[in-house]
Design brief:
333 residues, alpha/beta, Peroxisomal Thiolase, Chain A, domain 1, 2 domains, ten-stranded mixed β-sheet, 14 strands, globular
Length: 333
């Protein structure tokens, strides 16, 4: 059994509201469309508002340079989330034996984001590496650790999910993605030897390469997706995972908290309605910080961790490019 001893999250300092995007940047779709399709009201960016307003981010390579000058990158965000997780767990960086990271929008091709994070945090040598399955990476990290015999794991493993999707977002007038994406990071300090705040039992992780072209960020361009296909897949597959995990663990709808990929508030409402799940026990933050990719689900758990009491149950389900999906069961200690 894996245990999460501490969790952290971080959002960059630039707040991007719907009014700013519609009235100043000039995105054609306004608040009524956002209300009916997304339910997202603000998000945060490593880019400045002035930069987005001036350039509409038509050159992602230039945006990367701007973000570095702004001192906010996937690595700086991941390090801040990681420090919060370590502080919560009461563990020093030099006690961490392995850093695993996800970063869909790396500013450097090599070395791995995990090694940059280890250096930034003061973590010593170890098998630090990136394990990336886009927005489903939190589930992949938990599954990867669960697949290793406990005695083979270091005493403490630090998992980090981070990304700066706004650097790859088109803010021209017809853009939809400008309303969706935010930047941010999450981190979890995990151990198989020490108890913690949450017990974790990963139960599902799969990919379907037939959907490999449905969500893409190429090496020099903007984010692109087949929005309709991805939306249908996400709702259907999340419902399937919630039902599969509940059946496997013998849970009823009102017995457990739920948390999904933080892609879209309206989509989450559809899932809750379809499965008759109580909204009061669904953890989410997408309406207040946008879709921050792999960091969305774990940041929602981290932000609501204090409301979980010993014995509380939680089912998580996430999806991402690949197409990939994963989920599992947690219990508060």
């Amino acid at each position: 059994m894996l245990n999460i001893l501490g969790m952290g999250w971080y959002l960059p300092k630039t707040e991007i509201t719907n009014d700013f995007l519609h009235k100043e940047v000039g995105l054609e779709r306004g608040q009524d469309w956002v209300d009916s399709r997304l339910g997202i009201y603000k998000r945060f960016s490593v880019l400045s508002r002035e930069y987005i307003l001036k350039t509409k981010n038509q050159n992602p390579a230039q945006a990367l340079i701007h973000a570095r000058a702004n001192a906010e990158t996937p690595v700086t965000m991941g390090a801040k989330a990681a420090r919060n997780a370590l502080d919560q767990a009461g563990v020093r960086p030099d006690q961490v034996g392995w850093v695993i990271a996800n970063n869909d929008t790396p500013f450097e091709t090599i070395p791995s984001t995990a090694n940059f994070l280890a250096k930034e945090l003061g973590v010593g040598s170890g098998p630090h590496c990136d394990i990336n399955s886009a927005c489903s990476s939190f589930a992949r990290h938990m599954q990867a650790l669960a697949d290793i015999r406990p005695e083979r794991l270091p005493e403490f493993v630090l998992c980090v999910q981070t990304g700066a999707y706004t650097v790859r977002t088109d803010y021209s007038a017809k853009s939809i993605d400008g309303y969706i994406w935010g930047d941010g990071a999450a981190a979890e300090l995990v151990s198989a030897r020490h108890g913690g705040r949450l017990k974790v039992e990963p139960l599902i992780f799969e990919t379907n390469p037939a959907g490999a072209d449905d969500i893409i960020i190429d090496s020099i361009g903007h984010f692109t997706q087949d929005g309709g296909a991805v939306r249908e897949f996400s709702i259907r597959k999340t419902c399937e995972m919630f039902e599969q995990i509940a059946l496997q663990k013998g849970l009823y709808a009102d017995e457990a908290y739920t948390v999904a990929h933080q892609a879209n508030y309206v989509m989450q409402d559809s899932i809750l309605h379809h499965l008759h799940l109580p909204e009061s026990k669904h953890l989410r933050n997408v309406h207040e910080q946008g879709n921050i990719a792999a960091a969305g689900c774990p940041s929602a758990i981290a932000q609501h961790l204090d409301k979980l009491h010993g014995g509380d149950k939680l089912v998580y389900a996430v999806l991402g490019s690949g197409l990939a999906w994963g989920g599992g069961y947690m219990e508060a200690s």
